């Protein structure tokens, strides 16, 4: 049986109209925002393309050694990175890494303050929670469309879509981390005459740090996943290689690029995870 | 001088406390109000004061509102109405910023569950209050080290709280409050989480410390023995209201109502009643300078006693036995010099009765109660203690001869 047409609502048209309206009224704002973001991304990208490969490999190895506490973990992480170079994908990998880095930096800059706000206001938490649920359950491809409309093709919409997709975990876990701080400890801080900011920076954030770091880890992993998808709207990098390989049915090329993505995911995940479960600061 | 003065303090938990106030003044009970309005009565019409340098123990069972009350003093819980004057200033009228500064300056607080900062070392925990006040770091660690030394934790400053035992953690809590040099210490069941032996040590140490630092202490406790031991005065609470205020002795010997009487019935009276209460005022004494053996003998006969205390320039110097005095008189001695027994037991007026038993058992003479400057205040003989204890237990409504 067919669903009666006269009670269907044209949400698609409304959305289009709304987008048109947003573009008409705030086009200038999005252009300015886009170019600011682009500038930032180019700086990050320039850095990763400039760093000599041996330096980066050694740096990653040392960092992994330090946070994971075992010299052979460091060696393994450095080895994986080296292998990515051996597959001939160094430059692509650096482009992807720079996109992930930019996305994570901006996500944290937005996410941690929002999480703090969420922890200090029950009202705000109630409003934000369903929104975050929605952001995470929405298929990630959907974000590409408004990103395209607002910023056109290229790196900026890719970054934008990545941030929207990746920011929820860090917001959520910052909120949870702060709320989980024992109320009696916060009460003690109050009793000694601390201000809101003193309690936040001296008590709540340090105690919430492990939980927040789990959020950072998740956000980073989601950013990496999204960056691959975002290559469909013009972000160069490993994801773009995969996309090309699919279009041209080049199985070997796709496999190499895919393998690099997996390796990069492992490296980033292991290191940020170790930071999260690390000992006290 | 009154350090803290609390007038008609109320704390009602719930969205519309103003609706509950009239019910309370009609004399409705806490439970009935909860049933009818879904509002909890934390503290109702509480008024009392704390003298400077005093340890005031607020005592009651759990749910009696004592923890709420202490938090109303520094406004960790916002009172519904009333007045809390500290040094004459109404704390409830302070703005948020003023309140923060007031807390920094006047209140050190110690918590039942320690509430230490787990991410900070012992030293950093103690420094916290000073850090909040933006004291520079050299002075901060100086003062904190002093506080740690006072509580006997020197050498532990770089440990983390979870590496310490419960007793040591609470010492950190105590040091954290001491380091501020605030004039008032609020101690919320500070020793309740510790096991009995450690608790007793901490109580002793607190009293010792108090001798040196002379803070005004409001100590919350549910343990009557603790209240008796620490409290200069005790405020007894039930259902958010004050049942009785007084010294331990007043409360024990003269309970305001059945509730208090029942509360205190298990107390070991011998630990509460002091030498001062038991002693017999000694009217008959011999004077070393003017009285010879004959005069002393006459005084003893008149008072029908067999031994007499001797004082010299208003200081107790010893005791003389009737038999010795008679011998000396026969020998024709003019002074008490040769028959004076100087080896006698002296106790201070606040010695608990329990400590007098062993002294009486070993001493063949009565015990002299003397004040700090060795003036004789009274005399204790065996029969007096038993009589006092029997009286004490009876006024508790307890027929068993527990104390004896």
Assign an overall shape of chain A. Answer: globular
**Biggest protein-protein contact in the assembly:** A-B, 19 and 27 residues
Helical content band of chain B: 40-55%
- CATH homology superfamily of the largest domain in chain B: P-loop containing nucleotide triphosphate hydrolases
Q: Oligomeric status of the shown chains?
A: heterodimer
Overall residue-averaged pLDDT value of chain A: 88
Task: Tell me which CATH architecture of chain A applies here.
Answer: Orthogonal Bundle
Provide the helix percentage of chain A: over 70%
The N- to C-terminal Cα distance of chain A equals 64 Å
CATH topology of the largest domain in chain B: Rossmann fold
Question: Ranges of chain A with pLDDT <50 over ≥5 residues?
Answer: none
Unreliable sequence segments of chain B? 395-404
Q: What's the shape of chain B?
A: elongated
Features of this protein?
heterodimer, A: 281 residues, mainly alpha, MetI-like fold, 11 helices, 83% helix, B: 404 residues, alpha/beta, Rossmann fold, CBS-domain, 2 domains, 6-stranded mixed β-sheet, 16 strands, 41% helix, elongated, disordered C terminus
Commentary on this structure:
- The complex is a heterodimer of chains A (281) and B (404).
- Chain A is mainly α and 281 residues long.
- Chain A has a single domain, classed as MetI-like (MetI-like fold), CATH 1.10.3720.
- Chain A is 83% helix and 0% strand.
- Chain A has 11 helices and no strands.
- In chain A, helix 1 crosses helix 4, helix 4 runs antiparallel to helix 9 (196-230) and helix 9 runs antiparallel to helix 11 (251-276).
- The radius of gyration of chain A is 22 Å and the shape is globular.
- The model of chain A has no long low-confidence stretch (mean pLDDT 88).
- With 404 residues, chain B is α/β, with parallel strands linked by helices.
- Chain B folds into 2 domains: 51-69 and 95-268, P-loop containing nucleotide triphosphate hydrolases (Rossmann fold); 276-388, CBS-domain, CATH 3.10.580.10.
- Chain B has 17 helices and 16 strands.
- Chain B has helices spanning 17-25, 30-37, 66-73, 96-106, 122-132, 137-150, 166-178, 196-213, 224-230, 248-253, 258-264, 269-272, 275-278, 293-303, 322-331, 353-362, 382-395; strands at 2-13, 40-51, 55-59, 81-86, 89-90, 107-110, 184-188, 216-221, 233-238, 241-246, 286-287, 307-312, 315-321, 346-347, 367-370, 376-380.
- In chain B, the strands form 4 sheets. A 6-stranded mixed beta sheet of chain B has the order 6-7-8-3-9-10, sandwiched between helices. Chain B has a 4-stranded antiparallel beta sheet with strand order 2-1-4-5, with helices on both faces. A 3-stranded mixed beta sheet of chain B has the order 11-12-13.
- In chain B, a hairpin with a 2-residue loop joins strand 9 (233-238) and strand 10 (241-246).
- The longest helix of chain B has 18 residues, at 196-213.
- Chain B is elongated and about 90 Å long.
- The relative contact order of chain B is 0.10.
- Residues 395-404 of chain B have low confidence and may be disordered.
- The chains are: A mainly alpha (281), B alpha/beta (404).
- The A-B interface holds A 182, 184-185, 187-195, 198, 202-203, 206-207, 280-281 and B 74, 76, 99-105, 107, 109, 111, 113, 115-119, 128-129, 131-133, 160, 176, 180, 186.
